[in-house]
Amino acid sequence: NDPLSHPGNVAFVSTNGTIAADGSYTNPYPSIAVALDAVSSGHRVHILPGVYKGQSNRVLTLMGKHLHVRGVGGARRVLIDCESKGRAWEFYSSDHPASIVEGLRII
Question: What does pTM read for this prediction?
Answer without folding.
Answer: 0.89
